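Entry 14. Ran structure prediction on the chain below.
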Amino acid sequence: MLSLKGFLLIGGFILSFVTFGSAQTQTIRGTITDYDSKFPLTGVNIVLYQGTIISKVVSTDEHGNYRMENVPVGRNMVRFSYVGYVEQTLDNVIVTSGKEVIQNAQLSELVSEMDEVVVTAFQQGETRNDMASVSARPFTIEETERYAGSRGDPARMASNFAGVQGADDSRNDIVIRGNSPGGVLWKMEGIPLLNPNHFNIPGTTGSPVTILNNKILSNSDFFTGAFPAEFGNTISGVFDLFQRNGNNEKYEFSGQVGFLGVEALAEGPLSKNHGSSFLATYRYSTLQLFDLAGIDIGTNSIPKYQDGFFKLNFPLRNNASLSFFGMGGLSKVDILISDQQQQERDLYAQSDRDQYFDSKMGITGLTYSKTFSANTYMKSTLAMQGNQVIAHHDLVYRHIGADDNYLLDSLSPILDYTFREGRITGSWFINHKFNSRWLMKAGIVADALLYYYLDSTRNLDPSSDFYYDYYTRWDSKGTTALLQPYVQFKYKPNDKLTLNFGVHAQYLALSKSLSLLEPRFGIQYDPGHDQLIAFGTGLHSQQQNLYLYFYRKQDAFNHPLPPHNIDMGFTQSLHFVGSYTKLFSQHYLLKTEVYYQYLFDVPVTVTSSSFSLINTGVGFSRFFPDVLANEGTGINYGAEITLQRFFYKQYFFMFTGSFFNSTYKGSDGVTRNSDFNAGYVMNLLGTKEWTVAKKNTLGIGAKITYEGGHWYGPVDTLQSEIQKEVIYEDASRNSLQFDPYFRFDLKFNYKINAKQVAHEIGLDIVNVFDTQNILSLTYIPNDDDPSRSVIQENYQLGRLPIFYYRIDF
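Output, structure tokens:
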């Protein structure tokens, strides 16, 4: 393993190229708009504070733009105030010498303009979404990089929030309040994403590596329940992502090299006269460096991936804008058991076969937005995207030679599949503010879904008359449509009370499934003394993963039957959430939430069994469904707490705790723990910064995660031998639990502000204590050692140091 001395040598080599200068300054600028209508506000007062001292004061022009020049590097406080609007304060605006700070803001209009009205920080809106009442929080680019162990990944960052668990070191799956990760909706600029990850498996929303580059994101929202009416086709959670525009006045560049990849970013004006801009990124994996350094990444096969993003933004006349964007990723890995001379631990391998895996994802779109007046705003997006997964497996026959090493006998093809999915999506909405009390938002998301599924495999059951014959499990292609109209309202009778209510509808043409009226309701009340009480409820539905509708069983002659789950309906979930929030001395926040979710119409097997689709959506394997019916149920309930100290006087900390129960019923009518019923999740994390030479900063962050173990049950050894994978006894499913999960992460970073250039050197050490956490059970053939069990424990990643160097100029 790479030693600390090695990291210091690398750091010293990089520092030798750094140019130090005198105290550096930078520009802060942006646009201020109305929170609801997005109309630019003229004459907004912007005050910059250095500590408690006013440093600069400016105001917005007729287009809502402002500019502050010669701002010293470091953390600054910016306050926005405007007559008739709620004052907004940003405590930690980070200024570096390498890049201008584009700090936009949206201000909420007061219902009453009387001077004596006192409005707390809560009523300015914590999220970008103006209809959010509960179970929602914003996140920024800085947050995705601040937390130890997050690796710049929005999904791994979100696992620190209350109600979220992500105790799988090898993947970024997000389990929210005991729900399947497959229930998470990813949206970008209003467009549902097929899968924003490399190495994605059909039916899942997680993977080892994200395609999303956090540096292209603007402030975004994350929801864990009782979503506003605009969000559909999800019962678990929502990542509502927004892209930032490139700098439209100045060319800027970033470069980063580290163990996870080499990446570059460029942005700047296309036309300074018209304010148009571009933003582009590219990343290529360098995981080979881990192998050279002797660092365990869970596999001896080197995954290869690359991804990129671009956005072109064109401001138009009369408060309109047009933008083009695109994102894509390529990933490939060959996991070769046949090359092994000794049995090797591998989180991603099956011990009896070579696997060749290739995936591609791409999306491109066009967005048009326009503010018609101080009261009306419209946005529409049209996008095309595609996702492809190709896999091939060879069964490995080998024996142990005289030197106790494996010798390869032969390879036999056993599996080939190609899954392609496409989506053409139109998303449109309009915001109209009738007055300071009433706001309406109405829109529709329309998807044309394209699919092509082809899969052939060998029959590996030796008792079958067709042993080792090929048969087809999928052979379908076609198109269908998903429609989701919605309308929602926000009503503020006064500055203390806000009501959000609306309805969502959903129709899937493939199965003729219709959820006509999904009511949503939320309320927020400010009793004063920096408190907020809120409640939210709603009915939510989700289609099943598209490939599950087309699985084909075989008849007695090994011939494929027609797809037998084509008529599956939506899974439904009813959410109830209550919350209480208290702000202490402007720097400490306490938030608690309690919730209850009732899931119904969940697909379960027609024959009596413990199976439920509630438990799918994670891992590296597809699911091969029997005949299913929407007759299953599930219940999730729990309590959450967040205690947070905002970044102030160069340090912050956050504690989150979730205590919950997640159960379900299959077609056998037995109540069981769901696969995701960890029972509790606790995170404690924090960061401390020190200023060095008045312009540089040293930061140290840490994170502790403690979580209940995964559920499993007794293994059916005979069926596991036949099917060459772990098969559990059906009747006693999820009656056993692994030991609790524990992980301690550390992060070190040093930021250097040289003249017009900023450098950052960082080291993120995941699982510092090299704790052995059990991930699952795995099937490992005896290989001429009959005394050894074929079922063994599979452990998560050990200590993983991630080094990086970044430059901005």
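The CA atoms of residues 299 and 348 lie 7 Å apart. Will compare against last week's run tomorrow.
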